[in-house]
Amino acid sequence: MTVEEKMEALGATPLFTDFTDTGKRIFASVAQEKRIPAGAPLFAENMVGESLFVVVSGGVRLSQKRPEGGEREAGQVGAGEVLGELAVLSPTVRLVSAVAAAETVVLEIGQRDFLALAPQKPQACLKLATAIAAVLARRLGESRDLLRETLARTAAP
Questions:
Q1: Residue pLDDT tens, the chain, 157 long
Q2: Which one, of 101, 111, 14, 12, lies nearest residue 61 by Cα?
Q3: Disulfide check for 12: which of 24, 71, 80, 133 has CB 3.0–4.6 Å away?
Q4: Phi then psi dihedrals of residue 66, to 5 deg
Q5: pLDDT of residue 146
Q6: Beta bridge mates, 104
Q7: How far apart are CA 78 and CA 25, in angstroms?
Q8: CA end-to-end span of the chain, whole Å?
Q9: How crowded is the C-beta side of 73, counted as CA atoms within 13 Å?
Q10: What is the distance, to the nearest Å, from the Cα of residue 99 to the centroid of all Cα atoms in its chain?
Q11: What pTM did the predictor assign?
Q12: Alpha helices per DSSP H over the chain
């Protein structure tokens, strides 16, 4: 992929929609294109993640191990979506496994590259960190609402 194609792929995601072309170019320059064959893992549950991934084409199935054995589907991520955002800021333990549902192309932005960019391009890195924080805050709000609904149902007579 060219830098311009990577910029377009980044711009198609909610995480990068507010970025200028210059900001997208900064991250496109360090983003690594990866082609994942159908059925191949992108990452595994409980491994330490150090990258965020932008799905350019194809899709990724997310699953979690069950305590009693086996796995349960935890969702799907398609083209134009991002997964593992927090790992670009700090190494984090993956809560799910991610496996390509079909031949999938992703852009990977590693924490090492992000940290190397920070002194050179602090505004762009701060903007990405702020965008990631907004995504996490939204997810936390959704989880809090879901927890309240669950507790209300279980407490009802």
A1: 999 999 999 999 999 999 999 999 999 999 999 999 999 999 999 999 999 999 999 999 999 888 888 888 888 999 999 999 999 999 889 999 999 999 999 999 999 999 999 999 999 999 999 999 998 888 787 777 667 776 777 766 6
A2: 101
A3: 80
A4: -95, 145
A5: 67
A6: 36
A7: 22
A8: 58
A9: 6
A10: 13
A11: 0.84
A12: 3-11, 21-30, 111-117, 122-155
Tell me the longest C-alpha to C-alpha distance in the chain: 60
- Provide the residue range defining the domain that includes 13: 3-155
CB atoms near residue 137 (< 10 Å): 10
Is-contact 114 88, C-beta < 8 A? yes
**Tally of domains in the chain:** 1
Parallel, antiparallel, or unpaired: how do β-strands 48-49 and 104-110 relate? unpaired
CATH of the domain at 119: 2.60.120.10
> Pairing between strand 51-57 and 104-110?
antiparallel
- CA proximity to 52, closest of 119, 135, 121: 135
**Cα atoms in the Cβ-side hemisphere of radius 13 Å centred on 128:** 29
- Any idea which residue has 């007579």 for tokens? 157
What is the residue whose two structure tokens read 């991934």? 53
